[in-house]
Amino acid sequence: MASPAQEPALLHRSFTQEPYTVTSASGSYLHLSDGRSILDACGGAAVAILGHANPEVIAATMAQMQKVSYVHTGSYTTSSAENLARVVLSPHSDFQHGLTKAFFVGSGSEANDAAMKCARQYWYEKGELKRTRFVARRQGYHGNTIGAMSVSTVLGRKAPYEDILMENVSFVGPADEYHGRREGETESDFVGRLVREVESEFLRVGPETIVSFIGETVSGATLGAMAAPRGYWPAVRALCHKYGILLHVDEVMCGTGRTGTYFAFEQEGIQPDIVTIGKGLGGGYAPIAGMLINGKVVDILKAGSSTFNHGQTYQAHPTSCATALAVQEIVQREQLVNRCAKQGRKLEQLLRDTFATSKYVGNIRGRGLFWCVEFMEDTAQKIPFPAEMSFGSSVQLAAFDMGIAAYPGAGTVDGLKGDHVLIAPPYTVSDEELVITVSTLKRAYDQIVTQLEDVEQP
């Protein structure tokens, strides 16, 4: 550990392990101060959808700053913000999503907090003041602010703050087929059980008290690219309609093309009331996220106070919006969502072929360019490694030493036990880079398995 005189002034995530210094980045690669180049196979945190140093995005950012870099949205707007909203809300396919307004902020956590407030204001404007509760899912993650963390269940991140989080939140089981589907239970039976649990919770707390049901359309880092079983989301959408509860889907990680359609919920055939997007919106070139709402919500706000009673200093920041607009225009022009789906099929096949006989690989799952490899000590019985072994993190660190960055996950099963790594490369990833990613991940896995089995030898 560094001496006090050498302590960095920046508060890093860890006091004991300093991060690597990135001096530059280009394409799919990060270039470190120690001379190494790392293939960014997870886009940071499923963020860098165009890779790094795209000249068109950089030029758009500079052009906006030369015109106007900041305005306060209490009085002003800019063409970059207005145009970004139109592009995001424009039809990206034949699917009719029903979303009509966009609200841009600086992070996914802020977007989910804004969505929770917007949903509450919807009921406030309707005079249904008893609606103060939120229902979310276990093993779900929605952000680090107090509101967003209150509807999340990442145990390690919540532990110090449990006593100060919102109490008007209850949780149902995750749409987790791999860990949750019982022996002999069909997919349809499993979905039925999940949906009955949701309805039971609605009835237990009183549907007339519930603001919204919140869930990731495809679960992100906590569960590891876990899509819901077929029929789950249409059934939940129907339940919310039955009881007049707003449906808020969190697509901060899985949206804006990551799963092979622009909105992940398109593949579920549903129309949510509120959607949050983030990481892929600006592709990492600027901090930006968004809340999108449908006409039903907009109409009630208009008919009531005719305001959204929420605002932030950097809301619809002109430079961030111009940057994100350039990213989204490239995504549309280059048909990168379709390319994401196509490259995703190649990534899936590579992962399944490469890890087909791997003793400790329990599950490979994902959509588009959003894939997870989950590890189990006993794959037949689905028994995870002891948490203290940090098997997934060990694989990720070994892969990093070999030149690729994957995203580690722990607590996959229940918040404490379970290990996985996520692969979420740029939509521009080449065939060669996919091969390098998977082959390197396999070498890293083999290395950790060899070390494990050497320790187990008498």
UniProtKB/TrEMBL annotation:
Xref: CDD domains: OAT_like
InterPro entries: Aminotrans_3, Aminotrans_3_PPA_site, PyrdxlP-dep_Trfase, PyrdxlP-dep_Trfase_major, PyrdxlP-dep_Trfase_small
Molecular function GO terms recorded: pyridoxal phosphate binding; transaminase activity
A cellular component term, taken from the record's GO annotations: cytosol
Sorted UniProt keywords: Pyridoxal phosphate
Keyword Cytoplasm among record annotations: no
Family membership: Belongs to the class-III pyridoxal-phosphate-dependent aminotransferase family.
UniProt protein name: Aminotransferase
